[in-house]
Design a protein that fits this description.
Layout: H1 10-32, H2 38-54, H3 60-70, H4 72-101, H5 110-133, H6 138-151, H7 153-172, H8 180-197, H9 202-216
Length: 217
């Protein structure tokens, strides 16, 4: 009976993961409410997923709040840039689609703007993950994220598929909004951390691996 309630057994670990997934999603949703904080909240979610869910280190609120405060300025600036470009592309797509429906061949370009908006979603995922994991200037973060997204296009397309799937599931079953954001980010983390390791120096990789080994004991 004691082993059933032991934190180290598989059942307890699974329950703890589920609770953490729910908790992270709720925190993300709450801190996205002002809209302007979406970038900082998403950055904090990625950081917390990587540290707590992936490597079982520390606690959800501690890591989420710490990352939110630490990256607030940079993540918010980037989010506002993405938001402005997203609105411009949506307006362009709306206008071009109106032209297309009116019989103008030029209106077919509305598809291009929709594709650009989808790419921006993927790029945003790379950007906020980069902010969460690395200290760099905003210019370098934007450049590196764009280059990574293009250099690893198959993985980027998979991230896009995961995003679309998450949106569809949320539409079909709205209560899933309480877990899907974190599950989506967890899947992205598995992809992006693999990519990030290709660009990290051997010393940094060794230090990070050693830190994780020390924690697991």
């Amino acid at each position: 009976m004691n082993s059933f309630f032991n934190y180290d057994n598989k059942f307890s670990q699974i329950v703890n993961k589920i609770v953490n997934i729910f908790f992270i999603s709720v925190l993300w949703l709450i801190w996205c409410i002002p809209i302007v904080t979406f970038g900082a909240s998403t950055t904090a979610m990625y950081y917390t997923v990587n540290k707590v869910l992936r490597h079982n280190r520390s606690y959800v609120f501690t890591e989420f709040w710490g990352s939110f405060k630490r990256n607030f300025k940079q993540a918010t600036l980037v989010w506002l840039i993405l938001l402005v470009f997203g609105i411009i592309m949506w307006l362009d797509a709306y206008i071009m689609k109106a032209f297309y429906e009116a019989g103008s061949e030029l209106g077919k370009f509305f598809v291009v703007f929709y594709v650009m908006m989808l790419f921006e979603v993927v790029l945003g995922t790379y950007i906020f993950a980069n902010i969460a994991r690395f200290e760099n200037t905003t210019k370098e973060i934007l450049k590196n994220s764009a280059l990574m997204a293009l250099a690893h296009l198959p993985w980027s397309l998979l991230i896009l598929v995961l995003f679309v799937l998450a949106i569809l599931l949320d539409i079909i079953m709205p209560p899933l909004i309480l877990i899907l954001p974190t599950i989506y980010m967890w899947m992205c983390n598995l992809i992006l951390e693999r990519i990030f390791r290709k660009y990290m120096s051997e010393d940094v990789l060794k230090e990070e691996d050693e830190r994780n080994r020390d924690y697991y004991g």
